[in-house]
Automatic annotation (TrEMBL):
Full protein name: Sodium/panthothenate symporter
Bilayer topology term: Multi-pass membrane protein
Spans through the membrane: 15-34, 46-66, 78-100, 130-155, 167-187, 194-214, 234-250, 271-292, 312-339, 360-379, 391-411, 418-437, 443-464
Keywords: Membrane, Transmembrane, Transmembrane helix, Transport
Any one GO CC term of the record: plasma membrane
InterPro entries: Na/Glc_symporter_sf (IPR038377), Na/solute_symporter (IPR001734), Sodium:Solute_Symporter (IPR050277)
Cell compartments where the protein resides: Membrane
Length: 480
C-alpha cells in the first residue's frame, strides 16, 4: 500500500507526524481528566447523563464520522465513481439523523444502557441475546478498520510503516476508552468535531488551488465522474447507500449519547448540530477526494483525502491530517466502549450475574475494552480493504438490529416475541450468507435483500402469532 502511494507521486512529510502526535497528546490529557471523574458504571457508560447540547452535537458527529469517512464511504466513492455519486451517498446518514430526531424522546424514555436492553424490553431475552452477538460482531469489525485507517494515514503522509501506525492507533484508542469511558470519549469527541470542521473548511481552498482549480480538475478526471451516479448502476449505488442509513437508525453509540443528554431540549439541539456537521463534512470530503483523483490518478481510493495533505502548506496539511486522525480515534473509542458495555451490561449482568455490583460492572467493562480492542486489531488483518469491512459490518448490523428496533417503536401491541426474533434471524442469516455462500444472486447487494426480508418476517410472523401464547405481544417496551 505505501509503495503504491509513493509510486503515485505522494511524498511523505515527517513534520506532519508531530502535529498528529500533539493532537494525540491532548486527547490523553483529557482522558486522564475523565478517569479522575469516573466513579460509577453510569459515569463510564453514559457520562452520568450530564451532557449538554454542544457536547452532544460534537460527540454524535465525531462518532459517526470515522475511518469509513476518511478512507472509505464518500471519500472512496468520490475518487472511484464521481463527485455527485459521493454527495448523494452522503444523504443516507442525513436522512437517518432526521428520522432519529423524531424518535429521540422514545429512545430517552427507555432509560437503558444498550440496544440489547431495548430489544429485551420490546421483544424478550432471546432478542437480547441475538442483538448482543450481532452488535459485538459488527462493532469489533468497525473498530478494526479504525486501527487500519489510522495506519494508512501515517504511512501515506509521514512514511511510517502501516503496521506501526496501526499499532499506535490501537494503543491510543484502547487507552482512551479504558481510562474514562463515555466521560472521556464525549469530551474528546467535542474537541475532535471542532478540529474536523476547521480542518476541512480551512483545507478545502488550499486543496483546490493545489489541483489547479475546479476547471482543471473536471478536465482531467474521467467524463463518467461528472454524471449523477458516475459508473455505478442504481442497484450498485443503493448497495452503498442503504447500509449507513440502516446503521445510523439503530446505532447503539448514538442511542447511548441521546440517553446521556442532560435534557430533552439540549439533546434535540445537539441532534441538529450533528446534522449540520455531517452535512458539511459530507460535501467537503468528496470535493477533496475528487481533487485528489485529478492530482493522484493511480492511488488506492481510500488514500484520496489523506494524500492531499502532502501537497498543501504543512500547517494546513497538519490540521487536515489531525482532523482525519480525530475522525478515526473518536470513532474507534466509541465503538470499542459500546461493544464492551454489551459484554459487561448485557452478557455478564444480564445473563450471568444479575446481582453484580456497580464496581464489578465498571471494571469488567474496562477489561472488555482491552480484550475486544486486541481482537479488533487482529481481525483487521483479514479484510483487504476498509470499504469492504465497513459495508460488511454495516450490513450485518442494519439488517438484524434496525428492523427489530423500529418494530418496537412502530408496531406497539402488534409486535410479538416470535415475530421480532424471526425477523432478526432472517436478517442476519441473509446478511452473512448472501455473498459468502450464495454468491450474490442477480448481482444484488446483501442489504437490499436482507433488511426488507427481516421487516417482512417481523410483520408476517407477528400477524400469524397474535393469538398464540408463545408469540407474546409487546407494547411500549413491555410484554403483556
Amino acid at each position: 500500500m505505501v509503495l503504491q502511494i509513493l509510486q503515485a507521486g505522494v511524498e511523505p512529510d515527517i513534520t506532519l507526524l508531530y502535529i498528529v502526535l500533539g493532537y494525540l497528546g491532548l486527547m490523553l490529557v483529557v482522558g486522564f481528566w475523565a478517569y479522575q471523574k469516573t466513579e460509577t458504571a453510569e459515569d463510564f457508560m453514559l457520562a452520568g447523563r450530564s451532557l449538554g447540547a454542544l457536547i452532544i452535537a460534537g460527540t454524535l458527529m465525531a462518532t459517526w464520522m470515522g475511518s469509513g469517512s476518511v478512507t472509505g464511504g464518500g471519500n472512496s466513492v468520490a475518487y472511484s465513481n464521481g463527485i455527485w455519486a459521493a454527495v448523494l451517498f452522503g444523504t443516507a446518514p442525513l436522512l437517518g439523523i432526521a428520522i432519529l430526531k423524531s424518535f429521540a424522546s422514545q429512545i430517552r424514555g427507555f432509560g437503558t444502557y444498550t440496544i440489547p436492553e431495548i430489544l429485551e424490553e420490546g421483544i424478550g431475552k432471546e432478542a437480547k441475546g441475538i442483538g448482543l452477538l450481532v452488535i459485538a460482531f459488527a462493532y469489533v469489525g468497525i473498530v478494526s478498520y479504525q486501527f487500519t485507517g489510522f495506519g494508512f494515514i501515517l504511512a501515506a503522509t509521514t512514511g511510517l510503516p502501516v503496521e506501526t501506525g496501526t499499532l499506535i492507533a490501537a494503543v491510543v484508542i484502547i487507552v482512551l476508552a479504558t481510562m474514562g469511558g463515555l466521560m472521556s470519549v464525549a469530551y474528546t469527541d467535542a474537541i475532535s468535531a471542532f478540529l474536523m470542521v476547521v480542518g476541512l473548511v480551512v483545507g478545502l481552498p488550499f486543496v483546490l488551488s493545489a489541483a489547479g482549480g475546479w476547471g482543471e480538475i473536471t478536465t482531467t478526471v474521467p467524463a463518467s465522474s461528472l454524471t449523477v451516479l458516475g459508473d455505478l448502476s442504481p442497484i450498485q449505488f443503493m448497495g452503498l447507500w442503504v447500509p449507513p442509513l440502516l446503521l445510523v437508525l439503530a446505532d447503539q453509540n448514538m442511542y447511548q449519547r441521546l440517553i446521556a443528554g442532560e435534557s430533552d431540549e439540549g439533546t434535540g439541539i445537539g441532534i441538529i448540530g450533528w446534522f449540520i456537521g455531517v452535512a458539511v463534512a459530507g460535501v467537503i470530503i468528496p470535493i477533496i477526494a475528487f481533487a485528489a483523483r485529478s492530482m493522484f490518478p493511480n492511488i488506492d481510493p481510500g488514500m484520496a483525502l489523506i494524500s492531499v495533505t502532502t501537497v498543501i502548506p504543512t500547517w494546513v496539511g497538519g490540521i487536515l491530517l489531525a482532523a482525519a486522525a480525530a475522525f478515526i480515534i473518536t470513532t474507534g473509542n466509541s465503538f470499542l466502549l459500546s461493544a464492551s458495555t454489551n459484554i459487561s451490561q448485557d452478557l455478564y449482568k444480564g445473563f450471568i450475574n444479575p446481582e453484580a455490583s456497580d464496581r464489578a460492572v465498571l471494571w469488567l467493562t474496562r477489561g472488555a475494552v482491552v480484550v475486544l480492542g486486541t481482537f479488533s486489531y487482529i481481525m483487521g488483518q483479514y479484510f483487504p480493504t476498509i470499504l469492504e469491512l465497513q459495508l460488511y459490518a454495516y450490513t450485518a448490523y442494519g439488517a438484524t438490529i434496525t428492523p427489530a428496533v423500529f418494530a418496537i417503536f412502530l408496531m406497539r401491541n402488534r409486535l410479538t416475541k416470535m415475530g421480532g426474533i424471526a425477523g432478526m434471524l432472517v436478517g442476519f442469516a441473509i446478511a452473512v450468507s448472501w455473498e459468502a455462500i450464495l454468491g450474490q444472486p442477480l448481482g444484488l447487494d446483501a442489504v437490499i435483500i436482507a433488511a426488507p426480508a427481516a421487516a417482512i418476517a417481523i410483520i408476517a410472523v407477528s400477524m400469524l402469532t397474535q393469538n398464540y401464547s408463545g408469540g407474546t405481544t409487546v407494547s411500549a417496551g413491555h410484554e403483556h
